[in-house]
Write a structure and sequence with these properties.
It is built from 20 helices and 14 strands. By secondary structure, the chain is mainly α. The chain has a domain of 73 residues. Helix 9 crosses helix 15. The longest helix is centred in the N-terminal third of the chain and has 30 residues. Belongs to the SusD family. Pfam families: SusD-like_3, SusD_RagB.
Length: 597
């Protein structure tokens, strides 16, 4: 990685030099790092690069490396990874270069932030701007390190190791041949960065009145107008204290999980407390948004969001609201001019319970195999397109049957048609039209962290720590209370009761199974399951199944037969990802995770 890092360093320290340098005298258009001291716009650009490098994506690609989905394009790297080709030199989930590049930007900001003239008009305004950018740099460094740890931590000589920690910027004279730090050292450093960020950042970016300016700035003469410039609503979208509390909950539940618990850095009690602390900022159990499970297609809410709007109740941190039809182009069925790229599996469809709350295999479920989509969990219809469903601005009917007359049918055309008998609905706006003669776009909301995720973190941690009905980590609610609220908003149960939940609440193991399944359903296609299965040390090799639907020539009824659509081929050591092969070749002090070559 030395070459790529040196290229990055050069890009940061020197702007593009034009071909005029071939002539004498050369035109001066170079900028070194000292230029940021007098140019706050240039300085902000350095931190902006750390934001732009964040690994958030609306594409649910990693789900296709699990039992939840299949990609219909044969050359896709995630398909290769899931079917036996994952290697240290073929790793589509690698975070190595991207995260370290971003950390370089963060370190440059931290080393130079105090030297920047952020505001000429006022010393205290200058200090507040400095605090804002310094706090964001600490938070971003911790966040990028967290994603490095999740992707590349692993066992080395029987010890859980992390990645090399970089707390200063690098140049051509830096030593790149660094050993890996332990998982514990990485965890501690990330938490330290988050705590340091909290010293500088507000809980929430908001405009304040004169008497609401924080004392540490008011004592130095800051006016509310100045404070609002440095920490007001115009900064919404950047990291604040509430978002950092969510980062801590995410890190703690990772560290407490079976794959990482040997490091001894966080217990489930710790994870429950971090999640409860985060949720306290959003009303505790009241953080359950009644419409939160449909956040991606709430038309009136999304269309009303602006750059400085408060987040919806369901969203802790979001990306920009953008008008596009990219997701629909990728995932709509081909009859509606889409590529149908992600195909949900029968495995996932079967994970949705009946409307009465019972799993379909339970004797009390009243599941009808001849009408498999009737009386099901409402989330199934909201997240997955099944045979006969409608979507799109023209309400086009989707026929996924093997004997379909359209390209929507099973395996009708390679690279376009479904390989499982299902198409994606979640994340998509149903009012987009892709017809070339009347194409439309709609606004899309990108949810980076949802309150539902942190609620499920709490439920998992609380149940593991003390069982289904214990209030843990200072919360006044239990794992049972969280799951009850989430299932109730989805419309599960009968006569106002949820008998299957009550059954699970009597047994920690059954509650664990239910919590993990609720997490699977609520967060499907949001790039969680790939990482969840690994941190749980769960079965990675359940084949991705599909449904073959044909019409009985005599009765006209549909006949449903499941089949294995795609194998999953992972070795046991693959609960941890590899260090890039190219890095191992270059640096003698960098050791590979066990099992990887």
């Amino acid at each position: 990685m030395k070459l790529s890092r040196l290229l990055l360093i050069s890009a940061v320290l020197v702007s593009l030099t034009s071909c005029d340098d071939l002539f004498e005298p050369a035109l001066e258009n170079n900028q070194d790092i000292s230029e940021m001291y007098k140019d706050p716009t240039f300085a902000r650009g350095i931190l902006d690069n750390a934001y732009l490098a964040l690994p958030y994506s609306n594409s649910p690609s990693t789900d296709a490396a699990t039992d939840d989905a299949v990609i219909n394009q044969n050359g896709d790297d995630y398909k290769k990874m899931a079917t036996g080709s994952w290697a240290a030199n073929m790793n589509p989930v690698s975070q190595w270069d991207g995260r370290y590049h971003a950390i370089q930007y963060c370190n440059l900001m931290l080393e130079n932030c105090d030297k920047v003239e952020w505001a000429y008009s006022s010393e205290i305004l200058n200090q507040m701007y400095c605090d804002n950018y310094k706090g964001n740099a600490y938070a971003l460094r911790g966040l990028h390190m967290m994603y490095l740890l999740r992707a590349h931590a692993g066992m080395v000589d029987g010890q859980l190791m992390g990645v090399p920690i970089h707390l200063s910027s690098e140049d051509s004279k830096s030593d790149f041949n660094l050993p890996r730090n332990t998982f514990k050292e990485c965890y501690d450093q990330i938490m330290s960065d988050f705590d340091e960020a909290l010293k500088y950042l507000p809980e929430q970016y908001t405009d304040v009145n004169e008497d609401q300016v924080p004392a540490k700035y008011a004592q130095k003469g800051a006016t509310n107008a100045e404070y609002n410039r440095a920490f007001g609503i115009n900064h919404r979208g950047k990291i604040d204290g509430r978002i950092i509390s969510a980062f801590k909950a995410q890190l703690a539940i990772l560290a407490a999980s079976p794959a990482y618990e040997s490091a001894g850095v966080a217990s489930y009690e710790d994870a429950a407390k971090y999640a409860a602390d985060c949720l306290s900022e959003f009303g505790g159990l009241d953080a359950v948004d009644p419409d939160g499970w449909k956040w991606f297609c709430n038309k009136s809410l999304i269309d009303g969001l602006g750059a400085t709007s408060e987040n919806p109740k369901e969203i802790i941190w979001r990306g920009n609201v953008e008008e596009s039809n990219t997701l629909e182009t990728d995932y709509y069925p081909p009859s509606l001019y889409g590529s149908g790229k992600i195909n949900p599996t029968q495995n996932l469809v079967d994970a949705f319970p009946m409307a009465n709350g019972y799993p379909i295999a339970d004797a009390n479920a009243e599941y009808d195999a001849k009408n498999p989509y009737q009386n099901r969990d409402p989330r199934l219809a909201a997240y997955i397109l099944v045979n006969g469903d409608k979507i799109g601005a023209t309400d086009g009917v989707v026929n996924t049957a093997a004997d379909s007359k359209t390209l929507d049918g099973l395996n009708k055309e390679n690279g376009k048609s479904t390989k499982t008998g299902y198409y994606l609905r979640k994340l998509l706006r149903p009012d987009v039209n892709l017809n070339p003669s009347s194409t439309t776009k709609q606004k899309h909301l990108s949810a980076r962290i949802r309150t539902t995720e942190i609620l499920l973190d709490y439920a998992e941690a609380a149940n593991e720590a003390q069982g289904p009905k214990a209030n843990v980590g200072g919360a006044n609610y239990s794992a049972y209370d969280v799951i009850k609220a989430i299932r109730k908003r989805a419309g599960l149960g009968e006569s106002g009761k949820d008998p299957y939940l009550e059954e699970c609440a009597q047994n920690q193991d059954k509650m664990r199974e239910l919590i993990r399944n609720e997490r699977r359903l609520e967060l499907c296609f949001e790039n969680h399951r790939f990482w969840d299965l690994r941190r749980w040390k769960a079965n990675l090799n359940e084949a991705a199944k599909g449904i073959n639907i044909t019409t009985d020539a005599t009765t006209g009824e549909y006949i449903y037969k499941t089949f294995d659509a795609e194998e999953r081929k992972y070795s046991d050591y693959m609960i941890y990802g590899p260090i890039p092969y190219s890095e191992i070749l270059k640096y003698s002090n960098l050791k590979q995770n066990e099992g990887w070559k």
